[in-house]
Amino acid sequence: SADLGGRKLDSYHVGFLLAPRLNAAGRMGHAGLAVEMLTSADEAKAFEIATYLEQQNKHRQQTERGILDAALEQIDTLKLAEARAIVVGDIGWHPGVIGIVASRIVDRFHRPAIVIAMDAPAAGGLGHGSGRSIDGFHLSKALVAVGHLLESHGGHEMAAGLKVKGENFAAFRDAFTAHALDSIEESMLVPELRVDSDAELAGIDEALVNDLARLGPFGRGNPKPLLRCRDVVLTAPPKRIGKTGDHLVLAVHKNGGKPMKAIAFGAADWADKLSEGDTVHLCVQPQINEFNGWRSVELEVKDLQIAK
Predict the structure, then answer these.
(1) Which of 63, 139, 212, 271 has the greatest CB tally within 10 Å of its CB?
(2) Cα-atom radius of gyration of the chain, to the nearest Å?
């Protein structure tokens, strides 16, 4: 990590704050501006490009959300989630964000997903697809098995891309989902969290967070440590936050100890199932929250189970 202007930069800032903005340039337009900002631009030009990249990233988020909503409606209408793999597509979807949308669908349904941005028939009707997979299902090999229906394809076990003619879209979806049915066992469709250790709330302090951070940088090959906190109690009803209320803030304690703040991203569905006083088990990743000069430890909730 580096220290810049009094702010400590680490792998989180690079991976989740800087990278999406650099990446947005290539997804929504041309990556050349991001390269210029990092290589040849003076301070004024770099600031101008950074401001533009921030706008592009917001546009990317809006575009991604619109396509995801349309894809989820398609999944619901056609009952695609009943299959062991999901293939969706439509005319007008932006090819720069379909890979992200595929990842969102995998996160929600825990099935391999392929999202296809189709050209209008007048433009040739070719579909550009991007797919993401789950552990145990080799996506690139699966595309080889149905390759006779594709114009091109390539990738690896967990992610791949393809091109398909519009007239072959339905046949490709049928063939791909049939291959998934033969290849994916039902047990593989159950998402699994691997807990690194049990922990007590009282022991999750800033020193522990700093020690865990030394194990980074984190990513798919080295995931952030996941802690399980058993039998903690909600001190207040869950609170929805975010522009669309998709996230929850929880306050929890154990044995009358000091309450801790916990945030669960994309967990709005839990709101109606939880009440003040409920006892729950949490799977969390602790982190430091800085606000107005104050530092505190809060918990990012990865899963929750109501104690029986």
Answers:
(1) 139
(2) 22
Query: CB neighbours of 294 closer than 8 A, spacing ≥ 6?
Result: none
The model carries a pTM of 0.78
Amino acid at 97: V
Closest CA to 64 of 36, 88, 28: 28
pLDDT in tens, 85-121: 999 999 999 999 999 999 999 999 999 999 999 998 8
User: How many Cβ atoms from other residues are within 10 Å of residue 221's Cβ?
Assistant: 5
Antiparallel, parallel or unpaired: β 113-118 and 86-91: parallel
CA–CA dist 142, 149 (Å, integer): 12
